[in-house]
Please model this.
Amino acid sequence: MFAEAEADPILSKDEFKALEARLRVALLNAQYERLRQADKTLLIVVAGIDGAGKGATINLLNEWMDPRHIRTLAYGPREGDELERPPLWRYWRDLPPKGSTGIVFGSWYTPLVIEAARKKPNADAIEAHSAAIMRFETMLAAEGVQIIKLWFHLSAKAQKTRAQRLLANPDTAWQVSPVDMKVNKRFDRIRAGAQVVLNHTDCGHAPWVVIPSADENMRAARTAEAVLGALRRRGVPRLPPAFVAHSSTTRIVDRLGKLDYDAKVDKEDYETELGLLQGRLARAARSDKFRNRSLILVFEGQDAAGKGGAIRRVTHALDIRQVDITPISAPTTEELARPYLWRFWRCIPSHGRIGIFDRSWYGRVLVERVEKLIPPARWRRAYAEINDFEEQLAASGALVLKFWLAVTPDEQLKRFHEREKSPFKNFKITPDDWRNRDKWKEYAAAANEMMTRTDVAHAPWHLVSANDKRYARLQVLRHIVDAMEIQL
Amino acid sequence: MFAEAEADPILSKDEFKALEARLRVALLNAQYERLRQADKTLLIVVAGIDGAGKGATINLLNEWMDPRHIRTLAYGPREGDELERPPLWRYWRDLPPKGSTGIVFGSWYTPLVIEAARKKPNADAIEAHSAAIMRFETMLAAEGVQIIKLWFHLSAKAQKTRAQRLLANPDTAWQVSPVDMKVNKRFDRIRAGAQVVLNHTDCGHAPWVVIPSADENMRAARTAEAVLGALRRRGVPRLPPAFVAHSSTTRIVDRLGKLDYDAKVDKEDYETELGLLQGRLARAARSDKFRNRSLILVFEGQDAAGKGGAIRRVTHALDIRQVDITPISAPTTEELARPYLWRFWRCIPSHGRIGIFDRSWYGRVLVERVEKLIPPARWRRAYAEINDFEEQLAASGALVLKFWLAVTPDEQLKRFHEREKSPFKNFKITPDDWRNRDKWKEYAAAANEMMTRTDVAHAPWHLVSANDKRYARLQVLRHIVDAMEIQL
Model:
């Protein structure tokens, strides 16, 4: 795998000059063509032996291409806010829009390479980490983010020589870091680790390219060729089958059909119980333990099922300064230029905070499915993508609770008519609401399938009978309080 | 001013009940009406005596209104990234979109109130700080952000009683902070300071409202009434004359007309000089002193004047990991929902970093003026707003340099034709470019006025003759290097 790179091949000045002129024109051309299409983002992951000239090469790439449409994203160790979110959060946050190019230093491969290059690497950890990366990259690829991964490589001898040459000149000495000087001693281990990583994570839709880096002409030319190849690749990548394939034979449970819609609470019991639950919620949210956790509440349900009212009863018990409520409606242009989960990644609460979503990422398998906004393959894949997303949230310390507030068609109709009559609610009822009502069965089928496929222990669905608003509000509070008291 | 509040008026339970029902309906109604219009943001600034029940009241407001469209923005002391930007940066960053409401705790008044409540307040500092706040609020008001400021007040005795009562109950003790306990001792000084602040910063478009806070019913009702009044206020506020009025008699200098467009450099001199300047730039950007500064470069100029090429020559000398290039085109929907400077505030570099703007906030007084996208009053006001913005940038440690690359009409025409013929540049020429060319004189007049009104010592304009690309690139580099070497 590294044989060619470790032979330290060189490219003569003349050969390079000829190549350079051609590559520059081609790169610019390909970059502008992608800008015009604006249907894909290109992420260039930069990795490799320290001191192989990664930084210098990327500078050159910025010079050859139009740097106004390239974002260089450089990451060090996770710090501050980042520690309170899943490790991939920073990469989601900074994801460039379609049409543009991102160059990633300190990517999601850094911890994996470090682990693989240890004296006694943990094979299980490497396996699990590689699988998580593959899920991430597969999802990005499926959602229009193309990935190419460059591994800059050279022989141990050439690495040493290069560092010494750069150090000798005050104009280039800054390019050499203390880490570069240590590489030589551990060269064999790093190479062995790299081999494991590349083997585990090379795939058609996010390939690794080894760049021979001893000679700067060769390094520049091969980098440019790799990027050019990626820029020119058109069409949808051939993806592996959904990364956590859900069995198509799973029986979809008709949870909505089996629900007891007559559940009720009378007013007096309601007032008493509400106060008690809100008191418990207030204490849980202000407990010391919650400072290292976060709470994510997802509210879904039919139109007029009472999501807003339930949310208000929850926030009443909270210090509103620790709450972010995100109402989800049609995506903005910025959001449309990224994978569908991007807008939600942006809103993940930090520790000690509560994020409430009034509708959510489940729109993917509800409205987008029923209204046929996306082809079936995309929403079928989404169950696994969403499970993966929520698993990362839970692993980072979030309690994730999901509520479906369920009403019967008759009750909804009654509420629609009430809204039409109410002087301050009639604007809440739109032609869309009536149209959605016509597709009651399709929405119910989608909701049932969603609850079957995404009801997981670390992010459970609570199906709540909401024909009686009081009952629904108490149920929601009870589930939240129970989960917090048990898990904190 | 505080006489009524310090009388600690109360509202009986019955009076409150009747009022509450009416206020809740009216608040929701007014909130939804604004959401529908989506033409203004409402910011509610929350300030006042510590321990007056601000937090509890805002929670109530969230419960009475639809909390999904209210963002509660709570700030403590500036920290981390915030210290590397102007003090107002955090408020710009989090500004909610039009149609929604933001409630601000720890607002831009906090440092001013602290200063004013000191034993020996610095009158000049208070004067200057108040003026800066007025400029900020006036600008927001002019751009569709309505502001109402609530000062929660009560007598010293009532403040003490309230804290003791809350502390006595474990369910409410969390509401009392150590600061609340200290207020009583310094009550007179805080009141005197508040009086100064309110006097200096009360104005028709961003009024202060004193909320009597000893009694929770009174406090809730008066807060709700104040917010309701603000929500219902329609139309454009009556603004004071532009806050830093520029003299209409200032003679606009025809800098573009007087420029020597024949300036040239031959190829050999260019290569030598380019290398030298890039070396100096490389050293300056990597110097220790630059770690506490940032660099903001603005590029403007006629179409095809060579902005992209000049930017590339600059970035060549930089570690691309420390650079953010922001190309400015038509605003997105998220950007249109905020004042025009918002999108630029979001892109201010942190210390040690370089932000390059390919076109910029000057679009306000160029394209938006010439294409009549906004009424004249708005772009006339923009000169002062922009000067204020850049002054804040400079004060926070940024070097701000602005370049106008100037070509003659003939040279532009030649380049347009070249672009049309070039296989990889022809997409760069659009019908817009030809239309802009027809308005050459209007653009030149706008550019001349812009350079006259916004050429300030802390953010100078450099007008660069760009008929010869080599000459222009060297000039740009020279100005940057000179500024960095002198100021670092």
Observations:
- Residues 325 and 356 of chain B are 5 Å apart (CA to CA).
